[in-house]
Amino acid sequence: MSHEHILSAFDRDLEGVQALLMKMGGMVETSITEAAQALQERDDDLAEKVRAGDRAIDELEVRINEDCARLIALRAPAARDLRIVLSVMKIAASLERSGDFAKNMAKRARVLGQMSAVPGAGGSLRRMSKTVTEMLSHALDAFIQRDADLAEDVRNRDREVDQMYNALFREFLTHMMEDPRNITACMHLHFIAKNIERMGDHATAIAEQVIYLVTGELPEESRPKAESVTTIGVEGS
Amino acid sequence: MSHEHILSAFDRDLEGVQALLMKMGGMVETSITEAAQALQERDDDLAEKVRAGDRAIDELEVRINEDCARLIALRAPAARDLRIVLSVMKIAASLERSGDFAKNMAKRARVLGQMSAVPGAGGSLRRMSKTVTEMLSHALDAFIQRDADLAEDVRNRDREVDQMYNALFREFLTHMMEDPRNITACMHLHFIAKNIERMGDHATAIAEQVIYLVTGELPEESRPKAESVTTIGVEGS
């Protein structure tokens, strides 16, 4: 009886903290979407909104961490439950980083708004962002539903994002080679592409966390790389 | 009596996991140092050693996480002790990311070895790496000694790294503008500089973790940014 009571108290607390995590996920997805929109439409006000909104995301991470620490201290969860709580903290950290990248995209959108536009770049980056927000959303769903198959789907989509990044990298390089006046804008665009790719890595990391939680095993070649080296004709690097 | 026994068991376990963390820190510092050396001396074998060595760092992070989880489950530490254990996990995550950046630097060193050298770049990047490894080392010392002053010193040095990065960014941009044939090499060099700056951010994050642990307060403007936007003459971005 008292044991049951402890269990359900843990479950209730866990639900609370998972709800905060979902809220945080929603805020990050919105940030990414709006940053990409601000970039394509050269919308300064929207970019500023994204930049200012990052603080709320950071604060939510702090609160989630505190709630998790309290939950662990109060409920002393056993092995698997503990793993779930630790996963929540790791996922919150990934979301916070992704939020930072969205903020950075918004900052660069404002800088780019003062330069001549690079044709097609805004649209391509927005498509890439869309893929990444979907991945993030599905990774969080997979976590809540403890769905390893859905998590595996997210993992597989990371390759799509990498391909988009590689295509854009070559495109920006061409623009730079053709006209040195494009270099500064292309450097910013390139960083944006790289940051979107990194958000994809974070979505993948969340998916791998889910797979670990459900199956007890880390997927092979477990961690997404910090970043892959674009080889530009140099194989095997 | 039994209370004392539990306390000392926690302390013993904590010492064990902190020792692993120090070991991991040493490995990451070596990786960064050797990656920078490989880059400057165009030493493929050393670059390959760094690349191959990253797996051991990743495995150590997994082990630290497992030990921490076991420690929490077994010893049910109270509030402050729990915070210390959670800090160990956060610091291990920062070290793991830094190790990934070092690996990435080593990969790019190999790619760059096949291009004509950009004068001065290897030396500048090596100096920047040296500052960052010192910051990492001091941040870990500050953690072990719970020394908020030392942690504050680390935080303040992050500005040095940012300045080095900004100077390099302008230098690479100039090289690219002058001769488009430098663009590819400079893009790689620029990413290396950015990654070193990010390692500095991680050292700062560790230092902030220490300040939080010792003082109970997060430093103002708490998180280092995912990356700062280099404004290149565009103020206020």
UniProtKB/TrEMBL annotation, chains A, B:
Residues 21-108, 125-210 form the PhoU domain. Keywords: Cytoplasm, Phosphate transport, Transport. It is found in: Cytoplasm. One of its GO terms (biological process) is intracellular phosphate ion homeostasis. The keyword Transport applies. Coiled coil: none annotated. Homodimer. Belongs to the PhoU family. This is Phosphate-specific transport system accessory protein PhoU. It comes from Albidovulum aquaemixtae. The lineage of its organism: Bacteria, Pseudomonadati, Pseudomonadota, Alphaproteobacteria, Rhodobacterales. The gene is phoU.
